[in-house]
Structures are given as structure tokens and as C-alpha cells.
Give the backbone structure.
Amino acid sequence: MVQSKKDLFGAVFAEFLATGLFIWIGCGAAISSNTWHSGNTTPEVGSVVGIALAFGFGISVLAYGIGHVSGGHINPAVTFSFLIRGEMSFASATMYMLAQFSGAFIGALLLYASVIGLTTGCEGNTVNTIDDGANVRLCSASCTLDDTGVFVDCGAPFGLGANQVSDAIGQGSAFIAELIGTFVLVFTVLMAAVHKSNGSGPNAAPIAIGWSVMLAHLVLVPLTGCGINPARTFGPAVVALISGTNTFVRGAWVYYVAPFVGSLCATLSYEIIFKNVPTVDDEMV
């Protein structure tokens, strides 16, 4: 996929940069959309839509930006697909994934630096002394209540949007949901950007890929926060942990297993069924 060492360095750095920006954009939208609902103690439906749009448009813009340099993976699950299809060497794929994970960490770190002041008004206050519903939600999600009902030990606001399995679903359901969401993404990448007879053309592929990410978020945000990308999960989770908020809790394994299984399923479907199947254009010739 990448020929020279210079090309590989540029591609790896592009993946590092784009993944960091992806985290800053998407998780930043998750924080801001849950912060500015004055008077409300629960997020509105618009929050989910806003988060989905940010992640979807974010991946589309960044894929356009670096697609011609690295292929625009921005996701270890996507890189894994190219690896098992034989389009990348193990060494190149490993470097891509390391760049994505480290980029996600730096992106989350920069996001934390951007929003760290949001919890300033939480420390030392109680639910009754905070008169804005949005701030009550912010403090409740970001701080610990001591025995007297006072907010203490505030970590990263909203855990930097780190993924967590909802208490309303089991870990098995979360695994299936994340697997299917990743399947949708990787299948779209293969059919819209890789397939030799794709109808969209290479210039339109990032739009379709962005839409697949957006659709996955519309379904998964209330259930799992929508991972479908191990690097996206890893970066905010580590920075949140450094800040004092542990998100490596129930179901954390799901985000590091399901995306690779979903990618494998999508890749096998493409290779076995769709790669060489006659297209509508072929049949018309």
C-alpha cells in the first residue's frame, strides 16, 4: 500500500493527526451538546443527533483530508480489514494502529485542556446549590458526591465522552450492537471506496463513509456511546482515567473486541460474496 519509508512516515503521521482531530471533534461535540441545555437535567434528543452529525461529518472531512496520503483509515478496525485482505503488511498495519491509538490519546488530551474549566463550579457545591439543570448534570457525571452531598474529586467533564455500556443493556447486547455498527462502517468502506465497480466513485466515498458513522451513532449512542473504533474508545478513556474518572468498567472489553470481529465479518462478506460479483454496469455491457 505504501512504497517508500518517506511515504510510510507521511501516511502514519496523517493517521495520527486525523485520529486526534477526530477525537477532538466528536467527543468535543458529545461534551458540548450535553452542557448547554439550561434548565434541563437530562439530555435532549437533539444531543444524540448533534453527536452523530459531528462524528459522521468529522470522519468524512478528515477522510477527504488524508485519504490520498494514507487511505484515511482513522480506525484500527478499518486498518485490520486492509491487513487481512493482504493490502497492508503486518508492520505497516501495526504502525497505523499505533499512530491511531496515540493520536486518539493526544486528541483526548487536547480536548481535556479545552474543557477542563467546565467543572470549576462543581467542587464544594451540592445539587441544591446549583440552580442550572445543565450544570447539575455536568457535575453529577463528572464528580463524586461525598457523604454530605457535596461534589468533590471532579474529573474530566462527562468523562470526555468516553464509551460506556448502558446499564439498560447487557454486555452481550452491547457486543452485538458494536459488532453490527462496525460491520456497517467497514462494509461501506469496502463497497464505496475499494470495490472496483463502486457506483459512488472515489471522490464521493468519504461522504458514504461519514454517513455510515453517523447512522451507527444514531443507533448506538444511547446504548454504548458508539465505539466502533478501538482508538476512539481508548484515547478518552485513558485521559479520563488520568483525570480521576475510571471508565474501564463493566463491558469495557466490548470496545476492543467487537470492532475487530465486525471488521472481520464485513471483510469476509466482501471477499467471498461481493468482490467479484457482476455489477449492474457489468451486466449492461
Summary: The longest helix spans residues 5-33. The chain has a mean pLDDT of 89. The radius of gyration is 20 Å. The CA atoms of residues 165 and 270 lie 29 Å apart.
